[in-house]
Amino acid sequence: MKNVIVLWSSPNTDGLTAAAKDAVTAGLRAGNADARAVQLNRLHMEHCRACGDGWGSCRTKGRCILEDDFQSLYDDLAGADGIVFITAVYFHDLTESFKAFLDRLRRCDAFTARRLTDKRCLLVACAGGTGQGTSECLARLEYTMKHMNMRAYDRLPVNRFNREYMLPALEEAGKAYAQRLETGFDMYY
Ligand SMILES: Cc1cc2nc3c(=O)[nH]c(=O)nc-3n(C[C@H](O)[C@H](O)[C@H](O)COP(=O)(O)O)c2cc1C
Predict the structure, then answer these.
(1) Domains and CATH numbers, the chain
(2) Nearest C-alpha to atom 2 of ligand 1 is from which residue?
(3) What global pTM score does this model have?
(4) Is 97 close to ligand 1, i.e. is its CB under 6 Å away?
């Protein structure tokens, strides 16, 4: 059985982002994966201090000097077979929680540690306001992941106007992703 972390960010436990998390998680479980959802907003996550001369010791040590929930989440992601990132869209971008976490993750992983290389992830952006900004948000997320040699399996835009058909699609995507983790990804990227 493959283990998958569903890392999601919104302060709301009953909004669009949470509904997306529930749909993907249900699909992952239907695909026989061991799925665990982690709400980033509930963790203690400081922002990068750009310590030392700006590069920090994380570049060579693969660890952050700050003591909060970062390291255990990094360890969990490194140990996971699959990762799903689900963010609410704020200002056409990721949530501040996601930005703070990914800033540090990239610094720790992209140079020496490389514990996330080749992990293929499912990306979801949830725009509950005007519905604008999912494309920019998903592109930004994928760009950051590329620094860590992580790759996207798919990029899924959800808003309050398409939720009726996107939530079932997310469940199907979760199931398909779980099955691909078992059988392999037939993709050259
Ligand atoms: C600071 C802020 C910026 C937001 N920017 C956008 C946006 O660019 N596009 C959009 O459709 N919704 C935007 N929203 C709405 C959120 O995407 C989201 O739907 C809302 O915060 C409710 O969260 P939920 O996903 O938990 O339902 C914004 C919300 C906040 C708080």
Answers:
(1) 3-182 (3.40.50.360)
(2) 90
(3) 0.98
(4) no
